[in-house]
Amino acid sequence: MAEQSRERVGVYLDFDNIVISRYNQLHGKNQFAKDKARNHVSSNPRADAEVTARIHQAMIDVGAVLDYASSFGSVVVSRAYADWSAAVNARYQRQLTDRAVDLTQLFPTVSSLKNGADIRLAIDVVEDVLRLTDLTHVVIVAGDSDYVPLAQRCRRLGRYVIGIGVSGSTSSTLAAACDEFADYDSLPGVTSAATLISMSTPSAPTPPAPPPAPPIPPAKEVPAKKTDAAASVAPLPLVSAAVPALTTDATPTPTARKAATPLLLRAMELLAKNDQEWQHASALELQMKRMDPSFQERALGFTQFSDFLKSRSSVVEVEQKSPASPVLLRLRG
């Protein structure tokens, strides 16, 4: 069993800030407002299909943010602040509920739709830091310079502050006020903005195909003469061509087994930030359980975590010099 971490992490997302910043990063400055993406409904037949595609391309991977936060310790607080009545934010309902994120509703009070998330978020963070004395890390997911005093105050109170923001929309003063700052594009599992932009760039038009050749008139069929021998042969019964698929495992493969390898790879990427070539298997097991508390090697048919690692020998290399020494591993390639 993996040991319990002493590090306890609080994650606070200024959701409107990160969604708008990502959209503008991919599609141009102030494009979120120009496209009126906040209340764009894709199910509306009259909706602009291009705006729908842009919103989908700019979707935030909440799991990647929380997984990165869990690399610092156990996530005990996770809150997202936004106007959840807006169509663009309602798209994230499944992502957020699957990761047990608390949703704080902030209705806009002025025509500019500014919802005061920075004030509410800051009050909650300070309250949690003072109330939860064992909270060791604070993760602020935003890029606004308004959060600089909050980061500074948390550091003075002895907390380790991590910031996460979108490149191009993050204040340099906020990054400097944190103990550590990560670009959203650099998080494991996130497709970078440069890759998404290159994928959406239209390719050169394909030259038109040459006109098809005129069809060749079919030859006249000559009816074959039936022989007595052919007529006396009874028609063969039709045989089904369907062959039952061969199975290599008598036990049905659980859904969890399919998700185990991607979970393993992302956990290894997060541990790699310590700049060590070999990682301890115990640290990897703890990280995987932080990311997915439902992960159990026994549910996958393995009695020990080391057996699970050996079954993934195509992606990780396992080393144990003696039975008493710790199990070490690293990514192949």
UniProtKB/TrEMBL annotation:
Region (Disordered): 198-225
Lineage top rank: taxon: Bacteria
Molecular function as annotated in GO: RNA nuclease activity
Gene3D superfamilies associated with the record: 5'-nuclease (3.40.50.1010), LOTUS domain-like (3.30.420.610)
Compositionally biased intervals (Pro residues): 204-220
Sequence ranges assigned to domain HTH OST-type in this UniProt record: 256-333
Pfam families: NYN, OST-HTH
InterPro entries according to UniProt: LOTUS-like (IPR041966), NYN (IPR021139), OST-HTH/LOTUS_dom (IPR025605)
Protein's name in the database: NYN domain-containing protein
